[in-house]
Amino acid sequence: METTATGSTAIAPASRALEVIGGDLTEKSLRRYLEGIAGVDAVGLEARAAALGTRSIKTTSKAWALDKIISLIDLTTLEGSDTPGKVRSLVAKALVPDAGDLSTPRVAAVCVYGDMVPYAVEALGRAHDADAPGRINVAAVATAFPSGRASRSVKLSDTADAVAAGADEIDMVIDRGAFLSGRYGLVFDEIVAVKEACRRPDGSYAHLKVILETGELNTYDNIRRASWLSILAGGDFIKTSTGKVAPAATLPVTLSMLEVVRDWHRLTGEKIGVKPAGGIRTSKDAIKYLVTVAETVGEEWLEPDLFRFGASSLLNDLLLQRQKLTSGSYSGPAYVTID
Amino acid sequence: MSTARLGVPKTYKLYIGGKFVRSESGRVYEVATRKGGPMLNTVNAAKGSRKDARDAVTAARAAVSGWAGTSGYNRGQVLYRIAEVLDGRRAQFAEEIAASEGVSDTAAAAQVDEAIDLWVWYAGWADKYVQVAGNANPVSGPYFNLSTPEPTGVVAVIAPQGVGSLLGFVRAVAPVLVSGNTVVVLGNERAPLAALSLGEVLATSDVPAGVVNILSGSPAEIAPWLASHADVNALDLLGAENLDWVDLQIDAAETLKRVLPPETGPDAGAPSIDRITFFTETKTVWHTKGLL
């Protein structure tokens, strides 16, 4: 949808935006709303994040945290060199993360490129059934991931393909170029359109995660604004990064997004999910995120429906830490899979 | 009126992954007293913890592929360069040995010379031990059957704890490095200065970061963590005669480590090619002969 220089063109209606901004939903009213959001105290935010990162989590709390983190992981492979075989081994690891310890919980989902969804679904087999205990979702990145530089129709068919192939969750990227040049309506419309493309024939929707790519948004103010925009347009989850741009997820960025989610919950009673992705490689880092979630939005967010880690190498570190807790001696990379 | 200069008291730090770090635990312990201007200075060293050992193993593991991947010739040059740099700092080492071991200056200097010479001797083996330990095996067929030693990986070493802190350290560490292993060393507990200063020599020579990691502190406290560490491939108990080293062997057996037992007396860890070949794995390959 074209936006005009006057910025008064009506944008696609989305029920949340209509409710919060009002019936007069235009590019202009959206911009007025987003630019009216208070700025972020960057120094305070980073200090708060740093303070949350200093908690000491040991013994039984650590054991609980490790298992919780595993159950919140979107186990990811997003390489140009991915093959059906690679996806099958990823799924095997998602189902049984540690063959030496079957009490290890399963991850929440596997996250793959759209064309790999059929292989992931097939490899999961009954673990992908709606009522399966320990069900593992299939998440697909769509909308010309990771750059998002493709026409609207390509992005929508990319999304629809993945949903038709059985993806339960769609990770879309926003148009950062449009966002940074202030064309909020364009970004908004695109999220609304992708959300519509997530609709299945039976009327249900695949979960929509909106990737802000915070590494390209430059300021915390922009991250806060993009978070609001994504939620208003109908995103079920807001996700930090694609993992292809540095810096990816950082604790302050995730904290600022959690604050938006907290504010949205206060405003509407609705719970939005958050997914930091990229750059979280150690158990120690992941535990800092758990603390931040619990302290910002509350422990009820520590469920796969509301919080996820987008990660690949993190799982191995969690397994090594778990082995250390179980056996009492340090483990090594020879005791986990090579991904 | 003479203005006596105030000495600079030094706290020696651990050497892990090519960096000089304080112990993660924040602990230090007193290791020597020496003259520093108008008064005696207490010299402290970092007291390593199990987590320092864990970090050291991680650093050593990361360094294995690079160090084992260099040619024997190149490794020999790098090891020889250590001896060169060490030779340029003989006075410092002699002073530290005298201060921490309480031996005479002459004895300390002699120990430094012997350590340097030993380092040169081991450096020479780097491109030769394969010829001695490897073999072209006789087979009754049109094949070559070749056995060649390869480094085992990460080796944890407990350096000799008695008199001769520098020489003992070199006797324990140099042979392990020759084949391309990386090491985590627990230095002499009471006299760790020579080992920690050798870290400064290593940092300024051509040894890649993580190839040698040096911890000071209590071997009784740290050794069990290294013996049971699943990512350590071999254990040299050379200086462990006063520890419960049978328990260490049992811990090491859990993950099938190669283990060398403690040695005592002045000949402990005496120069030998066996100390090089012990920390290797034999790879045997078959290859067809060309049928022309």
Q: So what's the CATH class of chain A?
A: Alpha Beta
Structural class of chain A: alpha/beta
Instruction: Tell me, briefly, the overall form of chain A.
Output: globular
Determine the N-to-C terminus distance of chain B. 91 Å
Instruction: Name the shape of chain B in a single word.
Output: globular
Point out poorly predicted stretches of chain B: none
Most strands sheet of chain A? 8 strands, parallel
How would you describe this protein?
The complex is a heterodimer of chains A (339) and B (292). In chain A, α11 (251-268) links the parallel β6 and β7. Chain A is globular. Chain A is built from 13 helices and eight strands. With 339 residues, chain A is of the alpha/beta class. The longest helix of chain A has 18 residues, at 251-268. Chain A has a single domain (18-329), classed as Aldolase class I (TIM Barrel, Alpha-Beta Barrel). Chain A has an eight-stranded parallel sheet with strand order 7-6-5-4-3-2-1-8. Chain A has helices at 15-21, 27-35, 42-52, 59-71, 84-95, 117-124, 152-164, 176-180, 184-197, 220-232, 251-268, 283-296, 314-327, and strands at 73-76, 109-113, 137-141, 169-173, 207-211, 237-239, 273-275, 309-311. Chain B has 292 residues and is α/β, with parallel strands linked by helices. Chain B has a single domain (12-288), classed as Aldehyde Dehydrogenase, Chain A, domain 1 (3-Layer(aba) Sandwich), CATH 3.40.605. Helix content of chain B is 42%, strand content 23%. Chain B has ten helices and 13 strands. Chain B has helices at residues 50-69, 72-87, 90-101, 105-125, 129-133, 165-178, 193-203, 219-228, 245-254, 273-277, and strands at residues 11-12, 14-16, 19-21, 28-36, 39-46, 135-137, 143-151, 154-158, 182-186, 212-215, 234-236, 258-260, 280-288. In chain B, the strands form four sheets. A five-stranded parallel sheet of chain B has the order 10-9-8-11-12, sandwiched between helices. In chain B, α3 (90-101) packs across α4 (105-125). The longest helix of chain B has 21 residues, at 105-125. Classes of the chains: A alpha/beta (339), B alpha/beta (292). The interface between A and B is small, with 9 and 11 residues.
